[in-house]
Design a protein that fits this description.
By secondary structure, the protein is mostly helical. The chain folds into 2 domains: 279 residues, no CATH class; 304 residues, no CATH class. Helices cover 60% and strands 5% of the residues. It contains 25 helices and 6 strands. A 4-stranded mixed beta sheet has the order 1-2-3-4, covered by helices on one side. A hairpin with a 2-residue loop joins strand 5 and strand 6. Helix 20 packs antiparallel against helix 21. The longest helix has 29 residues. 52% of the residues are buried.
């Protein structure tokens, strides 16, 4: 059981056994990863402006944002970066150790220090949350008196974050920004100036500014004074900037009159028994098991110096508790589209695509139902893969009564299980290793290969049960131009389907689909026309996906595209290259291994391995060329 330790509280508990027993009863209601947010030192500052709150209240926001970002599936580098972005305008310096499902963060304001450890019970992917947290970081920064970091136009973040309870928040935000730019020439001019300033600031980051930020670090006392000389990237370029906490490592070990080890639950959620919500007494959790931010005091309207801690947590509540954008049925349809497109790109024909469509759709629907009930991920993956493979085989056998040719398509069921490919942890694991974060990178890659192992074992078990012997897809005799056009359409549909599985909003999914259609078609055409090896094709495809995503985001920053289309690069690049993951290679390796055909198993396993490692290398190369924080070790 994680424990929040405070020396003063522990002494008083020793003198009062009854209080200790009551505390034990309260803690027994929580899971091991869940510690209440409404501790005394945090709760008393809920209605203070963030910059005036105590370090515990500020840390609760920093760590909660980090946990939400980690739970959305992104890598440790981006989680730490987001925590820095949240901490900077508060005058807090943070050092965080981030792994697959846990964060240990130490925060200091120059006078005191606090450490929090949080962990998640599971992991997943939610690109919408990654995007919304970017806007939350900008909204918080602006309300704390600093400039925005990720987006050139803070009004976009303001409209999104402050209207998250609106079911049509995206349409409302687009309309508000459109009206603002149409009727306010000064706002349009300010947008262009902000874009120009962002580019200029990015090019003028110097050592003197870094040293100035470090001097701020040495003198800060937690009242928002840190970083007055620092530099922000206004344009959404995910640079590490001259972070003020770069110079506080030695300071951290010495400062502080009280050092406290604190543990809070993922997302910093609160489960205080007996808190009041909307005037009603409530104990434990709500009906959905969600934690409530304590409402022991009314909102303070007297202080207009920025948002309060309570208001920031309420915005995070809305982000955390947003329901998936798509129902289980639509998610199954997206998986069906993605896998049937995947099969075509692998060389399959109409029968193979039809079998994969049915199998993947049924399998993903089953997986969503099981994960929605918090069934273990590995068990849910294995069961859904077996059901998907059986549904595919059953569909082809049924069609075989009318057309015996369908019975010869023994490889289609492999395409039906490709919706479980863990593209996000595979890619983010490689990116973490590129940033020398080996613990997180190894954990992510191990997790990804564990999911792949479960999936391929499930497919192999079905093949043994129904006596299948997949030998690959039969080539189709198509004109080169027709094939290229069909590949373009199939890649677009496949990437769109995977983006929906990652919970991307439709506009984000369409942008990723355009990037994926161009890059994957280019990869396949180079392999056919220029005899480029599959490994090199994967590298070039991923590299081009990274470049195109950067161009897209840069175009938004410069005002060439609408400001509400500034999506995170990782939400565009990963879905666009997931379709390049060699699922067929990995399955064949497991199939031959199950037959104890070691040589063929190793051959296909090494082919898959080479393609897999080339995908994150391509993205890393694109980031190194376009992103200062990846080009230099700072």
């Amino acid at each position: 059981m994680n424990v929040r330790v405070k020396i003063k509280s522990s002494r008083s508990a020793d003198r009062n056994p009854g209080r200790t027993a009551a505390g034990a009863n309260r803690v027994s209601k929580y899971h091991t990863h869940s510690i209440p947010l409404d501790m005394e030192d945090i709760e008393r500052d809920y209605d203070k402006p963030i910059v005036d709150a105590c370090i515990a209240a500020k840390t609760s926001l920093i760590v909660r944002v980090g946990m939400l970002e980690l739970g959305a599936g992104t890598g440790s580098f981006r989680v730490r970066q987001m925590m820095h972005r949240i901490a900077y305008p508060m005058g807090i310096h943070v050092r965080a150790d981030v792994n697959l499902t846990d964060i240990e963060a130490s925060c200091t304001d120059g006078a005191s220090r606090i450490t929090e450890v949080v962990d998640l019970p599971t992991t997943g992917v939610n690109t919408e949350r990654i995007w919304l947290l970017e806007h939350f970081a900008d909204w918080l920064s602006v309300n704390c008196g600093q400039s925005s970091t990720y987006h050139a136009m803070p009004a976009v973040s303001k409209e999104l974050v402050e209207n998250l309870d609106d079911p049509h928040v995206y349409a409302a935000a687009r309309k508000a920004i459109k009206d603002l730019l149409a009727h306010d020439a000064e706002a349009a001019k300010a947008l262009k100036e902000a874009a120009a300033t962002a580019v200029e600031n990015q090019d003028q980051i110097s050592q003197s500014r870094i040293e100035a930020a470090r001097m701020d670090t040495m003198t800060a006392v937690g009242l928002g004074a840190v970083g007055t000389h620092g530099s922000h990237d206004h344009g959404g370029n995910e640079t590490e900037a001259p972070d003020p906490d770069e110079g506080c490592q030695e300071q951290t070990g010495k400062s502080g009159s009280s050092e406290r080890d604190a543990v809070t639950e993922p997302g910093g959620k609160a489960k205080e028994a007996g808190t009041e919500v909307d005037g009603k007494k409530r104990t434990g959790t709500d009906g959905a098991g969600k934690n409530q931010v304590p409402r022991s005091a009314p909102h303070s309207q007297a202080d207009n110096r920025g948002v309060t801690v309570r208001q920031a947590h309420e915005r995070l509540n809305l982000i955390e508790r947003r329901k998936p954008l798509y129902s289980a049925v639509f998610s199954g349809f997206a998986a069906a589209v993605a896998c049937s497109a995947f099969v075509f790109l692998l060389g399959g024909g109409p029968f193979d695509m039809a079998g994969a469509f049915v199998g993947a759709g049924v399998g993903q629907w089953v997986r969503r139902q099981m994960l929605g009930r918090r069934i273990n991920q590995f068990f849910a993956t294995g069961v859904s893969v077996i059901i998907a493979a059986l549904a595919c085989v059953g569909t082809l056998r049924l069609v075989g009564f009318f057309d015996p040719v369908a019975l010869k398509h023994d490889t289609a069921y492999i395409g039906a299980i490709l919706y479980v490919i863990p593209g996000f942890p595979l890619v983010t694991g490689g990116l973490d290793i590129a940033k020398l974060d080996f613990p997180s990178g190894v954990q992510r890659i191990t997790y990804a290969f564990s999911i792949i192992l479960v999936a391929t074992l499930g497919g192999w078990a079905v093949a043994r049960m129904v006596m299948l012997n997949p030998q690959g897809f039969e080539p189709m005799a198509l004109n080169a131009w027709v094939l290229a056009g069909l590949r373009l359409v199939a890649a677009f549909c496949g990437v769109w389907g995977f983006s929906v599985l990652f919970n991307s909003p439709q506009r984000m999914a369409l942008v990723a689909a355009i990037i994926g259609a161009l890059t994957d078609t280019m990869r396949l055409e180079m392999q056919d026309l220029l005899n480029v090896p599959p490994e090199m094709g994967a590298f070039l495809g991923a590299f081009m996906a990274g470049i195109l995503a950067t161009v897209w985001r840069s175009s938004v920053r410069h005002g060439y595209l609408p400001p509400d289309l500034g999506y995170p690069r990782i939400s565009l690049t990963v879905p666009s290259i997931v379709i390049m993951v060699p699922g067929l290679y990995m399955y064949r390796a497991m199939f031959y291994l199950g037959q104890f055909n070691t040589l063929n198993a190793l051959d296909w396993a090494f082919r898959a391995f080479m393609v897999i490692i080339c995908l994150p290398i391509g993205l890393v190369m694109a980031r190194v060329l376009t992103d200062r924080s990846w080009r230099y070790d700072i």
